Amino acid sequence: MTTTAYWRPSSVAQALELLERPGAVALAGGTRLGGERTHEEVEVVDLQALDLAGFRAGAGDELTIGAMTTLQHLADGDGVPDVVREAARREHPSTLRAQGTVGGCLATGHPESELLAALLVHEAVVHLRTRETTEAVPLAQVLADLPLPAASLLTAVTIRTSGPAAVFRTARTPADRAIVAAAARASDGGRLLALTGVAATPVLVEPGAVPDPPGDFRGAGDYRRALAEVLLARAVEAIA
Ligand SMILES: Cc1cc2nc3c(=O)[nH]c(=O)nc-3n(C[C@H](O)[C@H](O)[C@H](O)COP(=O)(O)OP(=O)(O)OC[C@H]3O[C@@H](n4cnc5c(N)ncnc54)[C@H](O)[C@@H]3O)c2cc1C
């Protein structure tokens, strides 16, 4: 990746205008973007001067998390549900947690992200802006539609914090990234279940309706499906 221009806007409006320039790309913590090896020419729009980090309590049990909140800040956050804090801690080693952001994680949609699975069961709604529109979109839909629309910015994500929740996982070693992880949460409307490692992004699932997972060197599709069913059952039992 070759950077042909560097911009540091001081407002979201300015950032959105800059993101309309040809080749413009948003830079948050840079843990993924900084490692990309392509021959593409880009104009970097650095989001660090925007006021998009931190937490805001809303009505009832709502908590809004700014897109530039780092994964470490989330892992340490007061009022953040335990499974979300723990998933943020598992996302990266501490050096990358101090840099990587919630917005970068949402925009990436990594299939093994336990943080995304935890946010899904906490009914996450993403605040998505373009110059013309401001939308609140369910996280499941944002992930299904990735990549993000051109010249758009994630500014925050709102979750519901109440209700018992649990995450169960299987990895090659305790410190390794999970091959499959299952998250469950009891909410007013019933039960929410999510899986990592079975689709192109973490997904919400219905009981007994695990998608057909693709296999890789860490686990064939059938093995992943079997793991998903066992881990979901454990997560459901834990929140009962
Ligand atoms: C060694 C290593 C391992 C990794 N493993 C994983 C992993 O397992 N799972 C995972 O999810 N990621 C992984 N990543 C990628 C990345 O670290 C995480 O997704 C991270 O949380 C990205 O956050 P960031 O702030 O560093 O994003 P950046 O690298 O700055 O940006 C990542 C992408 O998100 C876009 N973006 C960032 N913020 C916004 C925003 N507010 N609005 C719109 N677009 C935005 C950027 O334009 C870019 O396309 C890994 C990275 C490294 C270096």
Automatic annotation (TrEMBL):
<dbReference type="InterPro" id="IPR016169">
    <property type="entry name" value="FAD-bd_PCMH_sub2"/>
</dbReference>
<dbReference type="Pfam" id="PF00941">
    <property type="entry name" value="FAD_binding_5"/>
</dbReference>
<keyword id="KW-0560">Oxidoreductase</keyword>
<dbReference type="InterPro" id="IPR051312">
    <property type="entry name" value="Diverse_Substr_Oxidored"/>
</dbReference>
<dbReference type="InterPro" id="IPR005107">
    <property type="entry name" value="CO_DH_flav_C"/>
</dbReference>
<feature type="domain" description="FAD-binding PCMH-type">
    <location>
        <begin position="1"/>
        <end position="164"/>
    </location>
</feature>
<dbReference type="InterPro" id="IPR036683">
    <property type="entry name" value="CO_DH_flav_C_dom_sf"/>
</dbReference>
<dbReference type="InterPro" id="IPR016166">
    <property type="entry name" value="FAD-bd_PCMH"/>
</dbReference>
<protein>
    <recommendedName>
        <fullName>FAD-binding PCMH-type domain-containing protein</fullName>
    </recommendedName>
</protein>
<dbReference type="InterPro" id="IPR002346">
    <property type="entry name" value="Mopterin_DH_FAD-bd"/>
</dbReference>
<dbReference type="InterPro" id="IPR016167">
    <property type="entry name" value="FAD-bd_PCMH_sub1"/>
</dbReference>
<dbReference type="InterPro" id="IPR036318">
    <property type="entry name" value="FAD-bd_PCMH-like_sf"/>
</dbReference>
